[in-house]
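Database export, one record per block. Field names are fixed; values are copied verbatim from the stored entry.
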Amino acid sequence: MPDLKIPEAQEELKTEQAPEQVPQQAPEQAPEQAPGQSPKQDPWEAPAPKKRVRTAAEKKKLVKRIIAGVVAAAVAAGIVFGMWFLVFRKDESLGNIYAEPAYIGSIQSTVEGSGNATAKETATVTIPANGTVEQVLVAQGDVVSAGQPLFSVYSQAAQDALATAQQQMNSLSDKLANLTLTAPFAGKLMEVAQFNPGDNVGEGVEVATLVNDTKLKLSLYFSYAYEDQIWVGQTAQVSVPAVMYTGEGTVEEVHKVSFITPEGGVYFEAVIAFQNPGTLTAEMEASASLTDGDGMPIFPYEQSKTEYYESRKLATKAGGPLVSSRLLNHARVAAGEALLVMSSESLDEQLTAAQERLNEAQTAVDALNAAAPIDGTVLSCTLAEGGEVKAGDAVVTIQDTTTMVVTIQVDDRNIGFVKLGDMIALSDYNGNSYMGLVTNVAMQGEVGQGMSTYPVTLEVDNFDGSLYAGAWLNYSFVTSQSDDCVLVATTAVKSVLDAEGNKQAVVFVQREERPEEAVELDPSITGVPGEADHYWPVPVVTGISDAKQVEIISGVQEGDMVFINYTTDPNNGMGGGIMIG
């Protein structure tokens, strides 16, 4: 078997990697071997390498690696220690337990805010037309009543405008009145024209003849020989042969005319009227006789024909579309009764506009002799007698401060607690107290910053004048109240996680033994008393709360000692507290 040769490089590696496995022996201790044989060696042994010496650069890199490893280990150890110290370490420096007993009392839930005060009424009097100041009856600071005279101004322009507006209104009113045709007297309609609703009836159109047939009259001629025997008011005997009617009449008119007959006689006219019994009409042959002073009858020259006592042609005075008609032949109508009604949209519009102009002109004239529009105090008056003023000048300002108005903003969480007629307490920065009456609650809120606010108007009695316009007032009102209820300090109620990770509101109550209702806390929670302190986390149902106390509906009874917090050592920064994992 040939000898096994080990290269030099392999010997060096063996020396460097495993010097303890193949120790170097001194030459004198080497085992004896037969001449011509190689040295004896175990088959598993590698040849011993030669030891290699590191360079300076390699040594420096190795040192840096060692330093970096040490630093990283130190940082990791610090983090682990910090987590333990802050979370898992039992804090032995929380201080002493501070507890208070639950007690019976009353609590209110209130809403607070502020609002701006303004006068309930402010009125400014302006000049409606150019003019000259005749009188000034008030000065700044005067207290006035509604209707009290303030000043007078003369304006020719305003007077002229009023007269013109009145004339226009009268003219249009006449035209409007003429759109309705009325009966001038009681009687019967004859010769009626036919119209349908909607027909356009023109101006001046004859529509009917109205006759008064309750009476009839006769025009007879008598000889001048009886001139002194016939007079107005004299009784006459009337006869209508065709119907054999006889009745009394009266001489109503005597006309000294010259009616000459074919025989050469001269006669005068007498008009005799008589009542119509209802069976007579015009154009009937009739006659009448009178009696002289000796009782002898006086007869007319000849018979005549009856006439209606009164007769008139009815014609429209204005035109327009027909609205309604009561025109019927032989229909009886009363005096003033509407017979024909027409409309005119354009005339109606003109009339409305004219009425507005008249009202404005009258208001302008009245305003020149101005009166106080409200009760209050004169804040300013810029008038001087004899001075000229222009239309639109604001000359007097009056403010009623006996009642002030305060507008407050209530958010959508609390607006339901405000009702019309409620009284809300107010106070100013000087400590003055007032009561505001709710007179208006806006139905539409103003949206902003995640919620809506509703303007609420309050009226405040300012009888003593201590509340000024522009002042800011603080308000507060009670939204709910509980009386004779169990109360604890607000800080006694803790929000914690139970062992199942559910958040619960608890109060740590002192008990000698664990209450049945006590909850198991999450192990990560620290900074609270425990079983060793005889305090147990009891779940509670809370009610009304304020900045200092909270109502306990269930879970705590009167007299129970409840944990508030730990008292802290001023020399130790690690005070007591609760930590929720």
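Remark 1: The chain is about 15% helix and 40% strand.
Remark 2: Residues 541 and 576 are 25 Å apart (CA to CA).
End of record.
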